[in-house]
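Protocol step 4 of 6: record predicted structures for both targets in the notebook before any analysis. Target 1:
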Amino acid sequence: MTSLRPRVLVLAGCLALAFTGVLGRLGWLQIVRHADLAALAERQYSRTVVLHAQRGPIVDRQGLALATSSPAESLFAQPRAVGDPVRVAARLAPLLGAPEAEIHAQLTSGRAFLWLRRKLPPSVAASVRALREPGLGFLPEPLRLYPNRELAAHVIGFDGVDGGLEGIERAFNDTLSGTPGKAVVGRDALGREVVTEATLQAPAPGQGVMLTLDRTIQYLAEREIDAAWRRTQAKAAMAVAMDPRTGDVLAIAIRPTFNPNTFLDVPARDVWRNRAVTDPFEPGSTFKVILAAAALEEGVVRPDDRIWAENGQITIARTTIHDWKKYGWLTFGEVLQNSSNVGSIKVGLSLGRDRYYQYMTAFGFGSPTGIGLAGESRGMLRDPQRWSALSLPTMSIGQEVSVTALQMVAAFGAIANGGVLMQPRLVRSLFDAEGRETRRFEPRAVRQVVSPETAHTLTRLMTQVVAAGTGHNAAIAGYEVAGKTGTAQKLDPVTRRYSRTPGVLSFVGFAPADEPRIVMLVMLDEPKNEKWGSEAAAPIFSAIGAEVLRYLDVPPRDTAPLAIVTGDSTAGRVRPAGATAIEPAIAEGAPVMPELRGRTLRQALTTLAPLGVAVQLDGRGRVVQQSPAPGAPIETETSVRLTLVGAAAR
């Protein structure tokens, strides 16, 4: 008994120590580690899944939908709860349009949770739900839709699983995305996977974005650009239209394009790129307008100053630069009207390096416009200290400098707006789910680049470019157009010289010239069957501009609208309609044929307008022959034939 007692005491002590240790461990786990262990237990029997909110809509300036969201469901699987992966894979494959082996591999992955397909159409989701297979479930995820397909695709962009990837969808992703919610996918008490869906936090929808784009103007621009791109087999084509008074971008039409509903189907990812803001190019002769603005503002030249054009060539720094025609004496207005390289270079040399650079930067070149889209290029404008002896002459004709389409439109918009440069604006406002405006983006004037007087003078010179110069194909019946053509060669990467093959053909202008409502650039990149900007880009400007001005209810001014009728001449037959201030000669109460020789096409048609005669045109330029002859009586149903001559314009 004596020897047994110590053993009992030792055993009791050990038990007491063990019990104390267990109590201490329980206290540690239940008090100190309670929060951590509770979270671990939660993770063991449930999984929290993020629910994406419905993205806010994107609308045009009229409130018409450009991007919307539709209810959809995403299919998930809990592989451990799937009964027979082989059978389930075989049943799912035809519904999801996926290989059976791929689905089987997912179902046998051993993972606790995985997405099988995101944002299924309602019909597909209904078919999968009808299978009643354990281990499969659905969670709501809105489906992004672009109801107009390719329309404005480069501006709108598109979104993916993780949000906006291009365009406005990317730039305003945080605004459009809203606040995500949470859902729980759980397990039962024995740890087996079960499909239970319960929302912990409902997602809050995103805000909407109203753009400055006009869906109708966008359509008109895309229709013409698409036709020209296909007809000329150009590498790329674009039209960018803006309201010069506010800087509102009305249209950005780009080819090639894509359908944002199926953006992954494009053969090359660079098709997604918004070339109007990301791709700089040498502007060529359109840049002579910037030179003209600087020279007029600085008093270096006046419109009627005469300049010797050296019979079409000039040599500087051992490099000879040619005109497309051998000109002699030209007024400065005629230098711009005929796009003379020699005349422009002489003006540039008189202006000087530093002053020219000052105005180029003032017009916004060398800096991003701040439109807010990802990847915007600043173009290329080197500091004058890095210019060579040839830089000033070549920059005077739009070489050795690169610009974006949006920069060019904004710069011409400044001239149209009395010399005030407006920042391009693509977003007008943001609005909530109830349609209430939450933020407004007002037009912003950047700076006064040139005086209103200079802008007015330059506008008159640019109207002559269209009325009687290289831009005659940009004319819009009933409206005065101001603009400039451009034909820019590209540097050959092998020879490091400018290639003779067509490069960038463009026209930039605005209308009506006296009260501009639209400024627009049209550009074709490396067309296969066009050589000059005047022949390729200017007619596109005319076609788009005529429709846009009609859509905007801008009344025709003091020129006669033309109705196209059938005929066999090169330019077709046109019938002037409507009286003008210019009256034809009258002899003894009967109208007679006026003298038209030497007049531009616009002047001739304006003179003939009150007579209501059919006009047949042959050629382009100024009238050199006419039938009937001047002074001949005009009988009923008289048909007037005009022969015009003018060299192919640059």
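Target 2:
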Amino acid sequence: MSDTFPRQYARTQRLSLGEPRNFTVSPDGSRVIFIRSHSGSDAVNTLWSLDTATGIERELLDPRTLNTDLSELTAAERRQRERAREGASGVTSYACNQDVTSAVTVLGGSIVLIDLLSGVATLPAIDPGVFDVRLSPDGSTISYLRGTSLCVSSLAGNERVITSDPNDAISWGNAEFIAAEEMGRFRGYWWSPDSQSIAACRVDVSPIDVWYIADPAHPELPATEHRYPAAGTPNAVVSLHIISVATTTATAVELSGTWEYLNTVSWNSAGLIAQTQTRDQKKVDIHSIDPGTGKATIISSDIDDVWIELVPGVPALQRDGTLVTCSDRDDARRLVVNGSAVTPTTLQVRSVVSVGDSIVFIANDISTPWATDAWAYSKGELQQITHSHGVVSISGSLNCYVSRISTLDTERAQFTVHTPTASHNIASLAETSLVQPNVRIMSVGPRGIPVAILLPRDGLSTKLPVLFDPYGGPHAQRVVASRAAYHSSQWFADQGFVVVIVDGTGTPGKGSAWERGIVNDLAQPILDDQVEILRDLNDLEPRADTSRVGIRGWSFGGYLAALAVLRRSDLFHAAVAGAPVTDWRLYDTYYTERYLGNPSIDARAYEATSLFNDAKHLQQPLLLIHGLADDNVVAAHTLQLSSELLAAGKPHEVLPLSGVTHMTPQEVVAENLLLHQLEFLQRNLC
């Protein structure tokens, strides 16, 4: 069977298979550990090492050589993968000791220990069924979660439970749903630098309402209980404790102040710190913790009238104890060292990569949010490390780091190891896309709205129907200077559309005021920016036929697509809404309350943004798509909107996906979803 783009896109997991990823640089800079599959169609990741002196790569572990069933995953690990949007198999994560001479991973629920110097892999005598496995810094002890318990073992075996609770609603060392889904904290325990203690979260989910997710296609199976903290309802109760590995004695950490969320924990030779945040997200405190007594002192606080944005990689301590964090000041997210902002107001800091003698971070010029670069700050000086004109991510420190650079001019991302004396490429085995993006990026209008426009490569000037293809919401950009971001959009363009992508108010990169322009309203400001570009489209692209305009999106983009066809049916003539939020009271506390407030206190913003209230206005074709196993944007969103539309006498289409989650990992589903959307759009616009 000949390959088509939808088939290739699904088979290669959106062309991600075969790319190297999850880089760890050894402290001495002599080697880089990473994972990569054997080809762009191989979903089984293997573990690799690169010698930075020679550039020679060596495969350390192919899981297929071990006697383990890669499909055997615990329910907890499946949830962890869903939170991380992990669709591959094999070695999907690993953890190293401090010297990066050994590592552990979980395959089929079993722990595998790998000597990173010799490449020898062994299976310790530890019963399967564990997840989130880690190594102590000195490499002598393995830690992991088994069910709701935190356990340790020697390298040979001999499991010991160091903390547990008979109440199934209480877990130790776990990252609760909100932490993993919304705060970017995927772990719930941290080793001390001396390998003698572990800081662990105790998570009590009993206050959270129980929701039930069933599979209607399999009525013989029981529904799955899911503790979902919907907006306005209770969150998990999280506390931090220091546990002695030798004695299993647990000391509660006394985190003072008013807080509901434990954002981050960091423990290095300079000390143990934790950041907490109030429920309204307008204040964060950073606590310095005495591991021996559990006493905590607030060493820094930040207050914002709207909300405090979390930045990956901070807060953190430099070796001399200097506190590094980020804060929104003078309409820019700035790197803050020892209380002082050290980056200019023209830069928007996106993440902090490493904090050592130098602080390495990713940032963009606010005038061009679609392009990011790596920077370093050391001894009062800023240094731009990369000049990519694209999208950059890096791993490591200034002494030795791995860069991933993707641009509009390169077929695939380029991976390079940099040392003071040499640089080496790491091979990407990802397939070359069957479509070649033909994209223009521009800044439109007096507010400089980022826009990408894609055309078919047919060389013609004939008018074409328009397809808006946004995400449009906070924390995610679609307009980026990376060819890889436009493969599916280009495929739609090649089918005979002018494809338009708009990053409007609320999207990242354009400064604090731009991101905060959606406070108390996740609907109208975002829709208004799409409308503004649509009204300008005849001047921006002569081939655009604005009498035939469709819009498609997934998740927040699904919400925006449905919103557009409900509120502006005069301008948008068909919509595909995939996994849409339809009423924000059905979404989670942390994300939703940041923008709309707590509905148990004031629900007016929720009423104003609910699609249910707009159902009676539908005048154009609408296709709703939803995975019935989605535990993030649950299927109730689509089903309840469909009921409202039916009650209002508004015809529409619903495509339920049995057994499918929010990330639609199944190959046959991913392929046919594209084809089904195309058929719907062609039927209604062409």
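Step 5 preliminary note on target 2. Residues 376 and 382 are 6 Å apart (CA to CA). The radius of gyration is 25 Å.
Proceed to step 6 after PI sign-off.
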